[in-house]
Each structure stands twice: as C-alpha cells, then as structure tokens.
Design brief:
heterodimer, A: two-stranded antiparallel ribbon, B: 4-stranded antiparallel beta sheet
Chain lengths: 302, 253
C-alpha cells in the first residue's frame, strides 16, 4: 500500500516504512542508541531525499528515545544529574554544529563530509566495541577475575569536581560537558541523535556503569534531537510529519521489545552485537565512497 | 487496477467524441481536436503515479506528435572523480530553464515524420531538447553534461525513455497515454499536440495540465512552509506524545 509523503514528495510503501521504524526502534531499545546512524542511510537507500531523511529521523529519534527513557526510568537506570550536565554541553555543541553544517553546505561538500564522518566514527567505535565485548566474553569463559570498577588517570586531576551518585562517580564536570559538546556538534553535522558515539564515550571516557549509560544517553538525546528537529523545520522545512508518523508508529513498538530484551542480555554481549551492527554500516558506507559509481554524473539540488 | 478505473471515464469521453465528430465533421472540418481525460493530476495520500489519456481526432491522414513539458527550473549537476581513492564531486554545472518533466509520443518514428529543423524548433524528441548550459565549455563537454542530465532524469522516471506511440483508431481518431511517476513535480504542465502532413505542421493545439497536491497533503505542505516555527513545535510535541503513548501501551502492570 503506497502512501504519498507531502514534504519528501514521493510515494513509498506504508508497511516498508512501519517495518523500518520497528527495526530501528528495536535496536534503539536494545542498545540505547537513537538509531539515526542506521535510519539515515536506510531512508536514503529506499529513495527519501537525504535532507528530508536527516531531519525527519531526528523527529523519530525524539519519540523512540522518550519511549525508551520512560522504560529505563522505571527501572531506575537514568542519572538525571549526569544527563543535565551532558545536555548543557549538547545544546551549545549542536547549535555550533548547525552553523558548521550550513557553512559546509555552502561549500558544496556536505555529502562527502557526512559520509566520511560516518565511516571514520563508526569504524573506530565499532572496532572498539567488538574488541571490548569479545575480550570480555572470552575472559568470562576462562573465569578470570573481573576488571576494576574504574581506573584513575589524568582526568581525575581536573577542577570542578561533581558527585554523580547514580553513576557512583566523583569526576570533573568538565568531562561530561565536553563529551556533551562534542557529541552535540557531531550529531548536528551528521544528523543523528548521537547515541552511538555517546554510549561508548560514557563507558570509556566517563567510566559510567553500563546499566545507567543507556537510560542517561536516551534522556540527553531527547532534548538534543528535539532541538535539531525544530531547527530543521524552521530553517529548511525538511521535516516530513507523515513519514515521521509512520516511523514513530513502528519505532515505539519496536523500542519496547528492544528494551525488554536489552534488560535480559549481559552488557558484554550487547557491546559485541552493537559493534557488529556499527561496523556493518561503516563498511557499507565505505563501499559507496571507494567503489566507482554507476554514473559519475548526478542531479544536484537548488 | 486503479489505472483501469481511471481510464474508464476517458473511454466514455472518447466514445462521446466519436459520436460528436460523426455529427460535426460533415458540417465543418476541424484540422485537429485533442483533449485529456483529466486536466488535474491530484496528488493525494494514496498517490502512486497517474496515467492521463490524451485523445483526439484529425480531419484527414497525417501524423500526430504529442509533447508534454513540466514546469521549468534551473538544474544543478555534479560530476564525480576519484581523489585519493575516494569518489567525490569535483565538477558542477548548471542548466537553465530545464523542463522538470518531458514526454513525447508520435504516430510514426519522429525522424520519418519531419526534418530535423521542424523537430528542433518544437523540441520533438529528447535529442531536440534545448538545454542551455550556464557554464562555458567546449561542445564535447557540453554534450557530456547534456546526455548526463537526460540520463539522470530518465532514471528518475521524469523524462520519457524513448518516444511513445500515438495509436490511431481508424483514420481520424488517435490516443496516447501519458504516465506520471510518484515523484512528479507539481505545477502547470504544457501539453502540445501537433498535426503534421508531409513534414509540415498543419495544426497545433496546447492544453494545460495541472499537477498539484490536494487535501491533507497540500495543507501539511503549506503549513510546513508558511508557519515553519509552529510546524517545528508540532513535530516535537507529536514525537514526545507518541513516545509516551508507546510507553503506556506496553507498560507491564
């Protein structure tokens, strides 16, 4: 059954879009990532114009993150204090990121920058997660003693120390602020929620326990994505509500199943699986960059 | 299925025309009459492309050529080349006043109907389309950009792949079907029907065709463009509520 999308100006199959929303929602609930890094390439692949895909999936991420964060909140897995500090950095970062996005688009190379950013970041993070998850799984099988709770390093010498009870951390507020800033900036440029970058940073840089990472990142992503949705709607008119409605309908259902399954799976398996998914997307995008295109000429917009 | 249902009123109109001409022709000969089954292609929620039937009659033997052009726009094009192992856009060209949609149909192959100058001045056939490149370039390069533009437009289904046929029913009645894909640009289209005899245009008729969004689709589009701020707020609130509802619906007691 075909449905016409008024902003994207194309017709697509209703069930294809619902299914896509459901799949991304499931992954979102399972891993605590917004799913934008998967949604954007998939939407473009099925024929949605890139600008519309980026803006509309930001709206979808808001809905699936709300749905996911409420489930996490009920289980007490959200560190609101940490979330608020991350968010403060995120707002500044995403606002600057939108400015940088406009600048790059003016230069006519935004597609390339987006693609390269994806390949680089997804490649690094996917590899790290897979190595970490795989090593941990092997270690558990060999029944070796678990790792220390967290390691002390140079970051603990920074000023503005704050206590985050939920995360059992006493660290400088500058750390989560700069993590929020960096992710906010990247998420604006790449048009994603940023969970796939945020989650590993929270684990490796901030040293947060895996149990609260998912809920807290979803909490922060809601606000950053809402900001991106609003900016895209007002500046570019690229948010397609009909498309968003279908993706969200599939997404909220998928997220419920995902977050239940996520609660049952051990953290190390989750990391390994997330790593595999992220590396897969990175490879797919890399192929597009290096393989000679069927037609070196393409239609531009404007 | 929808296509057949859509064609049925067109068949009736065709039958009516046959009757009308049967009465009218002996009185006064009209060189060419043509009309469309619909003058409005309405893009609604269920829009999955549309077929519009063009039908008409000519006074005596000759050839019929139909050209349909969508609203004109400037078209930017990019060309990729390999830089350090990565394919990136390195060249850019702009064509001015390019028809966003192009369709051509004829009763015989175009080159048999008329000489090139006649075809060219009326843009009959993809080869005869006037596409003005804004950039200065050698004829060879211009030709590459030009064929790339046509190729890409064809891939999007907006330019006809090869000339379609105008079918004659008897000696005087003709018909052809113009197909519009789902990504058809909105605006005012121009449908030109030509009647040619011995390579010269005897008669021509221009019929306008409107392609526009209707109902909810049109309202959402104008809301998004005219009240962008409010639209943004609605989008965010909708997402928040939808997420909350999803949570409520699946909450375990």
């Amino acid at each position: 059954m075909q449905i016409y999308l008024p902003i994207a100006e194309i017709s697509l199959d209703v069930f294809l879009l619902l299914g896509l929303g459901g799949l991304i929602g499931f992954l979102s609930g399972l891993f605590g990532v917004g799913g934008g890094f998967l949604m954007t390439p998939l939407l473009i692949f099925i024929g949605v114009p890139p600008a519309i895909a980026v803006a509309t999936q930001a709206n979808h991420v808001v809905a699936s993150s709300v749905s996911g964060v409420l489930g996490q909140w009920r289980r007490g897995n959200v560190d609101f204090k940490m979330g608020a500090v991350l968010l403060a950095g995120g707002f500044v970062g995403s606002t600057l990121g939108v400015a940088l996005f406009s600048l790059l688009r003016g230069l006519g190379q935004i597609d390339l920058v987006i693609n390269l950013s994806y390949v680089t970041l997804l490649g690094i993070i996917g590899t790290l997660l897979m190595m970490e998850g795989g090593r941990a799984l092997l270690r558990r099988r060999r029944k070796v003693a678990p790792r220390k709770a967290h390691v002390h390093n140079w970051a603990h010498g920074l000023p503005m120390k704050m206590r985050f009870r939920k995360s059992r951390l006493y660290i400088s507020a500058l750390l989560p602020l700069s993590v929020g800033f960096g992710v906010g900036m990247l998420s604006a440029i790449m048009g994603v929620g940023g969970g796939f970058i945020l989650v590993p940073l929270m684990i490796y840089v901030l040293g947060m326990p895996t149990s609260v990472v998912i809920g807290t990142s979803l909490f922060q992503i809601i606000f950053v994505s809402a900001n991106v949705t609003f900016l895209q709607a007002t500046q570019n008119q690229t948010v397609d509500l009909v498309l968003a409605l279908l993706l969200v309908a599939g997404g909220v259902i998928g997220a419920q199943f995902g977050s239940r399954m996520g609660a049952r799976l051990p953290g190390d398996s989750l990391r390994l699986m997330l790593g595999v998914v992220i590396l897969g997307v990175a490879l797919r995008l890399l192929t597009e960059l290096v393989v000679a295109p069927d037609d070196i000429y393409s239609l531009g917009v404007g | 299925m929808a296509g057949i249902a859509k064609l049925r009123p067109a068949r009736l109109a065709l039958a009516a025309l046959v009757v009308a001409l049967g009465v009218a022709l002996p009185a006064r000969a009209i060189p060419l009459v043509a009309d469309l089954s619909e003058h409005l292609v309405a893009i609604t929620t269920g829009f999955a492309g549309a077929d519009v039937l063009l039908f008409g009659a000519v006074e005596d033997e000759g050839d019929v050529v139909v050209v349909v052009r969508g609203p004109e726009q400037n078209q930017v094009m990019h060309r990729k080349s390999e830089v350090a192992g990565i394919w990136i856009n390195t060249a850019r060209a702009v064509f001015e006043s390019v028809p966003s949609y192009y369709f051509v149909a004829s009763s015989r192959p175009l080159e048999e109907i008329a000489e090139t100058p006649v075809l060219r001045s009326n843009e009959m056939g993809l080869d005869q389309l006037r596409l003005n490149l804004r950039n200065r370039a050698s004829p060879n390069i211009v030709e590459q950009w030009r064929s790339a533009l046509i190729r890409n437009k064809q891939r999007e289904g907006l330019y006809v792949r090869e000339p379609q046929t105008v079918t004659f029913l008897g000696d005087n009645l003709f018909r052809t079907t113009v197909s519009f894909p789902t990504n058809v640009p909105v605006g005012l289209y121009r449908v030109d029907t030509y009647f040619l005899r011995e390579g010269r245009i005897v008669s021509a008729q221009t019929t306008p065709l409107n392609v526009s969004k209707i109902g909810l689709e049109a309202e959402l589009y104008s809301f998004a463009h005219d009240h962008a701020g409010a639209y943004g707020v609605v989008a965010v609130v909708f997402a928040l509520v939808a997420g909350w509802l999803g949570h409520l619906a699946f909450r375990r007691p």
